[in-house]
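INTERNAL TRANSFER SHEET
From: sequence group
To: structure group
Subject: Arginine--tRNA ligase

Please process the attached sequence and return the structure record in the designated field. Keep the field labels unchanged so the import script can parse them.
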Amino acid sequence: MISLTERLSRIVGDAFEAEGLDRALGAVRVSDRPDLAPFQCNGALAAAKAAKKNPRQLADAIKARLDGDAAFEEVTLAGPGFLNLTPTVAFVEELASELKADEQQGCFRVEKAEKVVLDYGGPNVAKPLHVGHLRSAIIGEALKRIMRRAGDDALGDIHLGDWGLQMGQLIAELRRRMPDLPYFDENKTDGFPEESPVTVEELAEIYPAASAACKADPERMAEAQAATAELQAGRPGYRALWQHFVNVSREALERDYGALGVSFELWRGEASVHDLIEPMVAELKERGLLEESDGAQVVFVAREDDKKGIPPLLVVKSNGSVGYGSTDLATLVQRKQDGFERAIYVVDKRQSEHFVQVFRAAVKMGLFEEDQLEHAAFGTMNGKDGKPFKTREGGVLKLSDLIAMVTEKAEERLRENSGDGADDPSRADNARMVGIAALKFADLSNPRTTDYVFDIDRFVAFEGKTGPYLLYAAVRMRSVLRKAGVPFDEAMTGTFCLKEQAEVDLATSLLGYGDAHRSAYEKRMPHILCEHAFQTAQAFSKFYANCRIADEQDPDIRRSRLALVAVTLRQIEDILGQLGIQIPQEM
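Return from structure group:
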């Protein structure tokens, strides 16, 4: 179904067209002054400028055409020609009934679905997830779900850091520690053990030790570089060992991401495009796109209209090796081969220049059009000192420790809220869901491109714009239906008859879902959906406080209000599902 503002825009657009003006000028939006009216149209000002007429007189002519329309309770003028619009209750009831019957619940649906890959992982093999991985995971998962809800075939790719020098460092270090392992026998080509010789916990200790040793000792660095070259050349023992590293790391990553409610359909890494790099470089040379610069091979991507200089994309280093530029470009070759029509990279905004380089090189190769490649950049999560969030000791906080921290704080709040200090078997699960909701909503409710401050006490509050507030609202809606003894499906059959302003306000808020969803989708901004959910939860709270529901004596009004509860619950559940937030049974 089309949204309430779209429906009103059609009616007002007809009035503009009847005056010989562009109907697009009749666009209606939510009012900046809700104390005057819930909706407004500013088109008369733009129309007057184009027609060289007085905007107030023009707006008055539009008003005269709208005054007799059954959709409007009141149309007033303000200022130089603003139209303030108040729909009739009957009109709101009609659209609310359509919303209730709509299988898509009023959410936005794309006209032409695309096959989209979202890159929102980027962890390295052998390293535990830390707080720096949080935003890409939360935002990427939400965007994937929002796009799927709109009809796109959207897939998430973790894009593992599983190739390059770090792998060589691990192999060289393990060879020093465990030289008798069969993987280091140059003459052995198969029959390697199926069990990994190291755990992910051991890898987490080995890698920093190996990295530090290589930085301190040129001989150790040379060993690691040689091991890297042999791995990439296909030495069987090293490939088998590398596969163990990837496998044990994946188990840990699936566990940690799973605790956050994040998943990936594709578990590819830099290694998956290794065999694509050589033919890609050959194609770049053949097409005259690869040029020499200080002994390296680069693709020049700067343009005359650039406000700042954009360096060329480094494809082949002067020593013949390749780096992130070549693997990222080869990844786009792979994604094109896989039939993806759009690629979205949910990566820290500090990487913006890199993606400009890679995207422009891909466009030059003819892989994608420029508007098919997106960098959905995001800001940082900071401590109260304004710097990227760290532990009290100044170290990088593991993601698992962060989740434990918010879960513990959520359990404290749940215990306070219940007023019962006794242990409750279900409280642990509820605390986990509330803690994750607090963490996710705190992130997603901020505009993606901005930084925000980590404030655990504020995040887990049951009041204000927080995840727990939304969960509590949803739990209350379920409780209302349960206490009324009316199953959800039965509640959905009620006919709307809105008697109180709080009911009308809630229904009006629900009818804004399509606009919010569309805007969140098109702008890649989940916070817009968060804001709609919060405003709707607030409207429900006022409705709950001002209207009898389960104990309403008039059977028609009771059925109407229970239907309003059911539609609100369905919409809040739909939105929270897109944000990757689970709702507990009780709080």
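Handover comment: The radius of gyration is 29 Å. Residues 345 and 375 are 5 Å apart (CA to CA).
Transfer complete.
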